[in-house]
Amino acid sequence: METVLGVSMTPAAVHAILVEGEHAEGATVDTDSFDVSRGRADPAGPDQVVSAILGTRQGATESGCPLASVGVTWTDPTQAAALRDLLADQRIDKIMLVSAFLAAAALTQTVGSATRYAHTALLFVEPSAATMAVVDTGDGSVADVRREALPDDDHAAVEALTALAAGAEAMEPRPDGLLVVGSDGVDIATIRMQLEAATSLVVSTPEEPELALARGAALASAHPPLFSSSTAAIAYAQDPATGAAIPHAVGLGYAADAATVERGAEALAYSADPDDAGLPPDGAFGAADVESPWTGSAAAPNEQRTTKPFLVAMSVLGLFVGGVLALVIALAIAIRPHVDTRPQIGAHAVAPAAPPPPPAAPSPAPAAPKPARRAPPPAAPTP
Question: DUF7159 domain spans which residues (predicted)?
């Protein structure tokens, strides 16, 4: 039996969960939580995460339940960069780094599958911001992302979250339910009643809030092609701390520059640029603020979209013309007789075989030897 390990790393604590199944769909095998021993700027957190991963991997292998994959999510981009470098230096493979927002999205997809929702709204709450999105249960894609900064006052922050929950029904596509996930110690249970009163959707919260992101990281690592194609491909180069969408980020190269632990591995679903923390609260960029890497000038969103149908049409036309030319050449070669297949006069003439020579006459039998003459009898003696 294979297992999947999910780890959630925050500046103050590390949470880990071990789940049965290659796709992290089974029961929980074990959980663990421990405080980070040093301050925020010290890389002790990544060191402890690596030690936990190596220890869990060895123990799982010895018990006959090897790790199929490992997912690690973070909330501090500085810790994420230090962890990435540490994993690369020690050549530790099969580790997927995923942002906290995408870990929450992976968890939302699983909840939607369990509740048979076609689409589920996700409200991801952090100490200073909240992100709202709709997750497709079928392919895990994320749509209609909205991010809003939260005020420092607790009552004002609750009102802002309530307003976001009230607008969940108007999102596209319309969700069937709402999942609320907290990060960095945000207590979701205290505001659940206010959120339920603000919307007619069924509001759900994780059973183990402190392990929610760790489980989401495990789910994301168990489905890497799903989250690298359906999520990263729609411009999820986000603020590493919050996951706010940046329009046209794929064109700017953020998705291609996403760091990986293994060379040649698939691009991971998070932004590799740790300096993106100063994004606008709404995550929106004007056309003049984005410089196209291809032309050196700003490119409007509609201009990028209009070139795609033209390129697709030209590609299809080129394939069609190439196929017709190949068919014509093949027919011409098949109709023309080859040199070695042309009929040749006398090619099948067969010369009669020469008759065998007559047998030689038998040699005469040797003549019988003549009898030797008998000697005359001796003369009688004289008297």
Answer: 2-232
